[in-house]
Amino acid sequence: MGHLPAKTIAATLRDIQKSEFVLPAIQREYVWKPSQVVRLFDSILRGYPIGSFLAWRIDPETIAKFKFYGFLKDYSQFDRRHNPDLDLPDRQVTAVLDGQQRLTSLNIGLRGSYAVRERYARHNTAHGYPTRRMYLNVLGEAAPNDAGLRYDFRLLTDEQIRDSAEDEAHHWFPVAKVFDATTAMQPMMELAQLGLGNNGFAIQVLGELYDAVHAKESLQMYEETDQDVERVLDIFIRVNSGGTTLSYSDLLLSIATAQWKERDARDAIHGLVDALNSTGTGFSFSQDVVLKAGLMLAGINDIAFKVKNFNTDNMAVLDREWDAIGNSLKLAAGLLSDFGLSDATLSAKSVIIPVAYYLHSRGLNDGYRTAVAHAPDRALLRSWLLRSLIVRGIWGSGLDTLLRDLRTVIDDHGQSGFPMTELERAMALRGKSLAVTDELVDDILDLSYGGARTFAVLAMLFDHVDTRNQFHVDHVFPKSQLDPKRLREQGFSREEVEAFGSRRDRFANLQLLPGPENIDKSATAPDEWAARTYPTSDAMNSYLTLNELTELPHDAAAFREFFEARRRALGDRMRRKLSSGVTTQAVAEEADEYDSTELDAALDE
């Protein structure tokens, strides 16, 4: 392995622009956050080293055997997260094995843009991801900050630049203009045109940035020339597994990419992740979940993320079965959406894996979601799934062991219907019981508005709700009527106001309402809204019964009594609805026969 002559940042980015530096398919995608990009530019301007790079010189005959990608220039968390495909000519190129994140960040900051979702913006709309470009404040250094940054680099939107036009403490200079400059005088002329030609700090900082980009040969690169892909893959894994920044799934995807023959593993897996996450109102399943599901649905015995499990034989099976695996995962995501779940309410992403395995093992298709004949089976699956999301810790530690147990149960008992009872028995033996206890009931009754588990509990308790339609978690007694200032104006004491505040967002004051009804309800007193919405006695009684409500409060004075009464009623409803029939005694009897070697294996894992 040789050492290449040092290069400037500008020369390296021009090589990227000409596709002389490329990315092998074994590389993961770009994952750096804006704060990391800003820190990199701060380091460059301060003259700090930013680490060495590792490259692989690829001969033309090797290029034809593998897939390569270009570097991102304009990154968007919404729709431009994947590196562009490259159709390389028959010539020698250099693939970057280590340093992709840094080089991509330089390419984005000096030549392109970065779009990240704004806080509270919707996941599935483009306008929630405004385009940002890198700027440097040329009027002064950064304010004191915990990150230890000296220079004020920021990724800003066009709107932020317009809003800062009158800010006398900042002038945001586009960093891309420094890269585009062919001489050191061009940025100085820009400053003169801006009326900053005599500003000593601006002149100094732009001059130093120009030198850092165009003059200093600061990028050090080692080069591997061997054309043996197994050796290169081994180097890549060793380099990237030394720290914690690259996940095992990234490494294993690299191996799959190198070994799959029928398709491009990178495109297939990323495409499936995108398809799953665009289901319904949106999810955020990760590459890890999809790869773990692939191992499980392909029938590979050991589903742990270990390099030995991504051997040639297992990868051949995964490659061959990928279309069927993808269809089962898409069907599972569709069911989760039908159950009213989304990214905001799905508290454990791994739950999709056993659901997909059940669907896959029975060869079910999209008709399962709507066919009347499958309705009882869907109800069992829904009940088990939602209860597994309600109980804390089910999908946490020991996941691989739990998934293997669930797969065995489905293989043995799930060929004609969803084996809810058998699954729960196996889970209880693993210490992951879905049994209803007083502690669980109290835990649920303390859930709050906005929590991920809250929707799942409401959907489970009130199964008359057709979650295929849009339902909102609604305050039975309006939140606005329990505003502290409003309560004080009504003469309530500080202690009473605090008591109202502690109950306002709690589970006993929540219900599921269709979206239009919730909007119509707004801040109206519950009794008045219900009387208007359900004008007949039959309609009113049905609404109250279905939602475990008795008398609806008209004002805050009646809220506390209503809250305590509904809390007791909901506790009783939970004990009735969530009971699975798998008793503690039955589990204890089976545990006496439990093979201790299995426990040892679980502890080892």
The largest beta-sheet arranges its strands as 1-11-3-6-2-4
Proportion of helical residues = 40-55%
Mass-distribution shape: flat
Oligomer: single chain
Distance between the terminal alpha carbons, to the nearest Å?
37 Å
Largest sheet entry: 6 strands, mixed
Mean pLDDT score, rounded? 86
Number of helices, counting only DSSP H or I runs of 4 residues or more:
27
Give the class from helix and strand content and strand pairing: alpha+beta
Low-confidence stretches: 581-605
Radius of gyration: 29 Å
Number-wise, the strands total 13
* Percent range for β-strand residues: 5-15%
Describe the structure in brief.
The protein is α+β, with helices and mostly antiparallel strands. It has 27 helices and 13 strands.
How would you describe this protein?
There is one protein chain. With 605 residues, the protein is an alpha+beta fold. Helix content is 49%, strand content 10%. It has helices spanning 9-17, 34-45, 60-63, 100-111, 158-163, 175-180, 185-193, 200-215, 229-240, 248-259, 265-277, 287-297, 312-338, 352-362, 375-390, 399-413, 420-429, 438-445, 452-461, 484-489, 494-504, 515-521, 526-533, 537-546, 559-577, 584-592, 596-604; strands at 2-7, 21-24, 53-58, 68-69, 74-76, 93-98, 113-115, 131-137, 153-157, 172-174, 219-224, 471-475, 510-514. It has a 6-stranded mixed beta sheet. α12 packs parallel to α14 (352-362). Residues 581-605 have low confidence and may be disordered.
